[in-house]
Amino acid sequence: MHKNSTGFYTLFVFVSLLIAPVIRFLSIYYLNYVLAGIYIALALAAIIGIAIESLKEKQYAPAFEFKNPFHLDAFSYIAAAGFFVNFITQCVLLYGAFSSGRLNGTYILPILMSGVTALVSSGYFIIVGFSFGNRNYDFRSFRLIHVVPMLWALSVVFNLMELSSGFEKSIDSTLKYFMMLMLVCFFYRFATEVDSEGNAKNTTVLFARVYSYLAVLFFIDRFALVLSGKAPLISAENSVAFTGLMLCGFTFFFEKNILNSFVNGKDNSRRK
Prior knowledge:
mainly alpha; 0% strand
């Protein structure tokens, strides 16, 4: 394998994450459509750059390199904590629904599914953390639960179907759903890589990168809305943004782990 260049996409994404929050806050505060357009264009350009950089490589190192130079065990535990935070949020939402008599199945069922899958996913990522921190442990030996994080992401999409309204929130809704869609795709690729003995697919790297970028962008977006008084501090969307940011640490360094093995030109996978 030859060394893959990530300089352009890394620099552009980093710069966009520095500039985008300022533009977004100004667009919210002044209700400026031009600034909103610049913000969207900047985000799209970053995603296109990520896609080009990710898909140009036809082959990467194996997805699960357990040498762990990026402390993926710690980030797995952080992801587990993020899932548990979401589990608590779903419990609060469920309690509120029963207290208010809002017993509509289309509202209750996604909350129940989110809560159950969040709790199972929390335990699952603790097991993933054990695998990256213990050379004698391999989470891939567990069956049937590899798809649970993907089911959680799908349930969150259904749980957030009530779209926000208003100029300042339309971008927020788009970011939210596109971020969760990328997380569904990443968890799908993660589950399929578990059963694969070959190298990681470029789409695994792509979805990890795009999700990581959007998770940071969405968290900043929610922060800007709260700071400008356009959104409450405590809300389901803010909980998703917080959980998404905690998951972002894992997806970001999971991708970096693959690239590290790719650059070194070695198949260091120690377990098949």
